[in-house]
Amino acid sequence: MNIGIDIDGVLTDLENYIGTVGKEYTIRNGLGFDDTMNINTTYGFLRKEDSHQFWNTHWENYATTIKVRKDASNIIKKLKMNGNKIIIITARTYDSQIIKDGKKRQKNMEKLIMKWLDKNDIKYDKIVFSNLNKLKDCLDNKIDIMIEDSISNIEQLKDNMKMLCFNAKYNSFYINSQVDRVYSWNDVYNIISKI
Per-residue pLDDT averaged across 137-165, rounded? Predict the structure, then answer.
């Protein structure tokens, strides 16, 4: 099978980073923060402008220091050993284009991503730097199973492939019978190994 894997929120614990570093940033700058990280906020930031400003100053720190989720590397290696093809599909470089110096930062982010994947021993067959519409990239790469945390991406993809939703506060209200919710990389392996 071709397994697509998102990075932010799937290989990384985006929720924890925003809940600590992001919340500290909003307090320090007198901004509002929503601990529920619900759908009406931008991952906890009350205003989109605040989210953009935060990422403008934190992208590089996040990209280089965020830890990989527990067991992700070992489970991905097992999935590859079982004959699956691993395709990383991330929109992070596209997201970084909304920040100043977009093209320059996009190329830098691609390098940081590949360095981070190597440093954290994430084995993959291909990496796709997608835009915010991942459907074309998933179809072009014949993805059978996609592991995502973004509700908008899950909604966009669910009719075309098996979806695994990596649990977070910002997607916890989402329920769909077509989508399996996972809470760890061991959950990911258990579901995929039964297919």
Answer: 97
Range of the domain at 99: 2-12+69-193
Residues in contact with 24: Cβ distance below 8 Å, sequence separation at least 6, in sequence order: none
- pLDDT(102) > 70: no
Residue 58 lies in a domain: no
Q: Which structure tokens are listed for 32? A: 């509002």
Distant-in-sequence, close-in-space partners of 149: CB < 8 Å, separation ≥ 6: 6, 8, 9, 10, 14, 165, 166, 167, 168, 170, 171
CATH code of the domain covering residue 157: 3.40.50.1000
Beta bridge partners of 88: 5, 127
Residue 6 to residue 87: CA distance in whole angstroms: 9
Does residue 84 belong to any structural domain of this protein? Answer: yes
Query: Is 52 among the domain residues?
Result: no
Band (72; pLDDT cuts 50, 70, 90): very high
Q: Number of folded domains in the chain?
A: 1
Q: pTM of the full predicted structure?
A: 0.93
Of 180, 186, 181, 154, nearest to 168 (Cα)? 181
